[in-house]
Amino acid sequence: MSQPIIELRHVTQKYGAQTILKNINLTLESGQFYTLLGPSGCGKTTILRTIGGFNQVTSGDVLFAGKRINDLPANRRNVNTVFQDYALFPNMTVAENVAFGLTLKKLPADEIADRVAQALKMVQLSDFGSRDITALSGGQQQRIAIARAIVMQPQVLLLDEPLSALDAKLRRAMQYELRDLQQRLGITFLFVTHDQEEALAMSDEIFVMNHGEVLQSGSPVDIYDEPINHFVADFIGESNILPGKMVADYRVSFDGHEFDCVDAGIPDHEPIEIVLRPEDLTLTDLAHAKLRVTIDTQLFRGDYYEISATDDRGHDWLIHSVRPAQDGARVGLTFQADDLHVMRLHEKEAEFDARLETYEGTENHDQA
Amino acid sequence: MTKRNFWGYFVPYGLWLGLFVIAPVALIVYQSFFNLDHQFTFANYADYFQSGVYLKMTLNSVWYAFLITLFTGLISYPTAYVLHQLKHRQLWLLLVILPTWINILLKAYAFIGLFSQDGLANTFLRFIGVGPHQLLFTNASFIFVATYIQIPFMILPIYNALDDLNPALVNASRDLGATHWQTFRHVIFPLTLPGVKAGIQAVFIPSLSLFMLTRLIGGNKVITLGTAIEEHFLTTMNWGMGSTIGVVLIVAMIIVMQLTTDHTKGAAK
Lengths: 368, 269
Prior knowledge:
The complex is a heterodimer of chains A (368) and B (269). By secondary structure, chain A is α+β, with helices and mostly antiparallel strands.
């Protein structure tokens, strides 16, 4: 594997008695799209500011291409940031904003003009150069902020919740554009968001954070299908999480029944939690049912029905179905053994990965 | 708000406006067209613009007001900038504002004591072996004290402008490779210019008509328009000429306001 472009080693950040980051270890490879995902206050923006050079960590090392950059000021790092509120200079035109960094480098005027034009073209705002910043819409300001950063040709682009101020439709369009831009530029993107949908759609690798810790990292599919704990399962997508017990390898019991599963390496009879995604549950008749529930309500979501139901033991179930159900009807639910994901309580990511390797071929797990 | 209610609330302000703004200005303009014998005349204006004395006085006033504003600005901007970065900045700001609560006359008398032959300043100069000097009744001491008095009025608007500046802009500038100085020159200063302009308004115009300080500290060596107005109203009793100078000051005020108001985006507060 080549030299990682950014590495955080044992990074801890404290403000007074508060610990914002707890022993963070991160490795970012060149040319990948990474996402820091977590609720507000989880420390994700602090990591971004640390890499950008706006935050001095309490302890630990920040490495850029193998060199320690803890004490390197922001203006001398080959990293650029797209700020959450864009932070465009209101006293300059669009072109002056984009040219700002290049002008400081004292590049020849024609080269600056060329690169600014190229950057504006890349964000599809070629004709906007002479406009005032205040005359732009939120989406346009967003693009200018990106153009201003990429014109510097950084090796790493940091994006601090850049889509949070945009409306839903524009946000979706920008997700495609950002992903496309990252692929065209071939540089590393580190994207910060609290929106799991954004993270899943764009990333090569996601770091799920909470309370200053990275709980799990992996490809979107890995994290969605095999969440390490209750928090990750709940935060990434919707899920039904129930307490259960491991009966034996590949056999689990919950809700008063025993089921086949694909998890192993957990001591027999250990209490665990199981996760079933709403879209993996299928409505069926009672004869074929693995679980029996009573329908409470349903919401039409356009492409599917979101059905809420209760089983005999009082657990709530969320089901996504393309077919509607009858309110108050008693129906059966069925699922495949590999849809059932088992989570151990208090298992750390390293332990989780090690356990997986004991019974899964390692080759299909380390590709991310 | 109903129309009747609106007029009810408007009464105190309307009275204040009428009695203390419109009426005095109207009276000054009216008086400026009368000579000592209470006859209608344009002679006051003719005198003003033809006599070298008044024009020199005007130039003097503008020049000293300019110097006072310049020194005030040179001291206030860095002060406001540093204050804004301090931890207990509200407290430090309060300490800057405190002297404005003390009457200007008291402060002037305090400086007479400090700058006199046996005052603290000369005692110190003697101590380090370069004194004593004539400090009081010099142009330098006049500018010094006037600057001291005006500083808080310049610091406050600049401080507020710095407060309004989005810190993300400073980070963005650093992020794009700007040094501290480049960030200041290209981002911080241009964006806090409205505060500087507001400060200039608050300092330059009152400085045009300072008369108490010119007398008490400047020893009447500096004759400004303020001194002239006082002389005409209290000594020569030529109210017409005094009013004419007053009108000139009001016009100067309007010109300065026009020059220092941001017309583009309404950014001035």
